[in-house]
Amino acid sequence: MHPEPVPKPEEPLALSQRETECLAWVSRGKSSSDIGAILGLSPRTVDSYLEKACAKLRVRTRIEAVALAVRTGLIDPI
């Protein structure tokens, strides 16, 4: 018999720089098209970064992701 694995503490939230940038722009009310123009990306690429951020943060919407990112200090609301 193997001993029960010890549960690991919750890993800190880690987003890529682009995921964080996209969330920060969402927090400022920008659309995917706006963010794409600002960062030189297609709106679909922006959506992809936001989807990845949502998955990492375990939330369903970009608004929930922004709220959690602000609460945890990942982005600074301006």
Question: How do you describe this structure in short?
Answer:
By secondary structure, the chain is an all-alpha fold. Helices cover 56% and strands 0% of the residues.
Question: What does this molecule look like?
Answer:
The structure is a single chain. The protein has one domain (17-71): Arc Repressor Mutant, subunit A, CATH 1.10.10.10. Helix content is 56%, strand content 0%. The chain has helices spanning 17-27, 32-39, 43-57, 62-71. Helix 1 (17-27) crosses helix 4, helix 2 (32-39) crosses helix 3 (43-57) and helix 3 (43-57) packs across helix 4 (62-71). The longest helix is centred in the middle third of the chain and has 15 residues, at 43-57. It starts with 16 loop residues before the first helix and ends in a 7-residue tail after the last helix. Residues 8-73 form the HTH luxR-type domain. It comes from Brevundimonas viscosa.
| Gap from first CA to last CA | 54 Å
The percent range for helix content is 55-70%
Instruction: Name the average pLDDT.
Output: 89
Tally of contiguous helical segments: 4
CATH topology: Arc Repressor Mutant, subunit A
Beta content comes to: under 5%
- CATH second-level architecture: Orthogonal Bundle
GO biological process, one term: regulation of DNA-templated transcription
Keywords: DNA-binding, Transcription, Transcription regulation
InterPro entries: Sig_transdc_resp-reg_C-effctor, Tscrpt_reg_LuxR_C, WH-like_DNA-bd_sf
GO molecular function, one term: DNA binding
